[in-house]
Amino acid sequence: MVKRVNLRDDECPVARALDVIGDWWSLLIIRDALDGVRRFNEFQTGLGIAKGMLATRLRDLTERGILESAPASDGSAYREYVLTEKGRGLFLVIVALRQWGEDHLFGPNQPMSSLVETKTGAPVARLGLLAQNGQRLEWTDTKVTKAED
């Protein structure tokens, strides 16, 4: 079995982010939490993930500060998993993945879920990267500057 590489101290923010959320189960758990899923059995049923795998991912996301465990909102003895501010900050990442999937992974007549505004039901606008002056940027308009030692 291949040992997982630790990227916690990498100088690249993308590498550090992937160290925390870089597997599909974690991203799908975060997606579902953004949609209001809070309980272990709801995650397990909705995702079809093995209980042991889910327990491991929930524990890791909690230890990394993406989720927090809280008493059930209905007063029962159950615990719920709630997104922290850090976890809610992944909303744009999930939307970007969604929009990329919409653009590249569906045929013309294939049904797919939609992301719409709660108040109006209108589809959300496409994400885009903007310069400080508001001008839209493409990947060729940017570069990464390496960290200095």
UniProtKB/TrEMBL annotation:
Protein name stated in the entry: Transcriptional regulator
Residue ranges of domain HTH hxlR-type in the record: 12-109
Gene3D superfamilies: Winged helix-like DNA-binding domain superfamily/Winged helix DNA-binding domain
Keyword DNA-binding carried by entry: yes
Keywords, alphabetical: DNA-binding, Transcription, Transcription regulation
Organism phylogeny: Bacteria, Pseudomonadati, Pseudomonadota, Alphaproteobacteria, Hyphomicrobiales
One of the record's GO molecular function terms: DNA binding
Keyword check for Transmembrane helix: no
